[in-house]
Amino acid sequence: MSSQPRILLLYTGGTIGMVNNPATGALMPFNFEHMASQVPELQKLGVDLHAITFNPIIDSSDMRPEYWIKMAQIIYDNYEKYDGFVVLQGTDTMAYSASAMSFILQHLSKPIVFTGSQLPIGTIRTDGKENLITSIEIAADQKNGKAIVPEVSVYFENQLFRGNRTTKHNAEYFYAFRSDNYPALAEAGIDIHYHHNAILPISSQKKPTFHKTFDQSIAMLRLFPGITKQVVEQICNMDGLKGLVLQSYGSGNVMTDKWFTDVMKHTVNNGVYVLNVTQCRAGGVKMGKYESSKGLIDAGVWSGYDMSLEAAITKLMYVLGKNMNRDEASACFKKSLSGEINTNLIMEE
């Protein structure tokens, strides 16, 4: 039996897995079962590497909860066979997938590293090789026989971020992701430098807790100067709506027009869970700090604190999927399940 760390690579689709067809010159999916031919450096890592490819592969723009559950099921079924997992997907919705995975599989003792690339792995200047190699190394890294990063993360362009703190911010350059509200978990240079104080503690559970149900009956309302009552009402009164992510200004502020808080109160009274997050990339919601947000508190809107939009959307789907009553849901949004919230902000309320 091999003493090398066993790593499972899950390719769902995306730019990283594309190579040029020598006959046509067009991009085609790469067979990850023959990784050594495209990335011979993998043989020097000292890991026992295996791969599973989605069939069919998915464009990241087509990502949805059923695929998150499919990814999680594969990881869960293989959890005891491998020391770590690397998930490859397109970058456009990677932050959503990583956020969702942190709620689907909780209490981890092994790494789940998401990565991808801006250029196909078969191109000369690809960022894919370095992202892939380092992600595998991070997934395999252990100290005293235990995983160094036992959580869901995103690795891209020399930095490892907590998955549910990550946002894609650049569609052109290799540094495609940022984590404005939480420090990097690791940085890769000549060596990989881990910031151990930023990493979640390892779980004592043999296998993670698997939450399989997400409810997609949600909408997002992003405010802008001049938004009309008609638009807000159309969104808030949609048939079947159960949850609403409100993207407000600054630290959670909204217009002071009475009609707006009236609509929010009516929405909450109709049983819709409304979560307030900021439009800003950094910082968070502090409801009640300014007069313009106090009406939301009275209306029953909940603070999303410093959650990213991706974490807020996926956590709301998770909460609705658990069929929590209002008190249970409120309590859930006031605690950090997988490191998605700065708990100091909760205590400051």
UniProtKB/TrEMBL annotation:
It comes from the Bacteria. SUPFAM superfamilies: Glutaminase/Asparaginase. GO terms for molecular function: asparaginase activity. The active site is at T15. Substrate binds at S60, T91, D92. CDD domains: L-asparaginase_I (cd08963). GO terms for biological process: aspartate family amino acid metabolic process. InterPro entries: AsnA_fam, Asp/glu_Ase-like_sf, Asparaginase/glutaminase-like, Asparaginase/glutaminase_AS1, Asparaginase_C, L-asparaginase_C, L-asparaginase_I, L-asparaginase_N. Keywords: Hydrolase. Its EC number is 3.5.1.1. It is an enzyme of class 3 (hydrolase). Residues 6-198 form the L-asparaginase N-terminal domain. Residues 218-333 form the Asparaginase/glutaminase C-terminal domain. NCBIfam families: asnASE_I. Belongs to the asparaginase 1 family. This is asparaginase. It comes from Salinivirga cyanobacteriivorans. The lineage of its organism: Bacteria, Pseudomonadati, Bacteroidota, Bacteroidia, Bacteroidales.
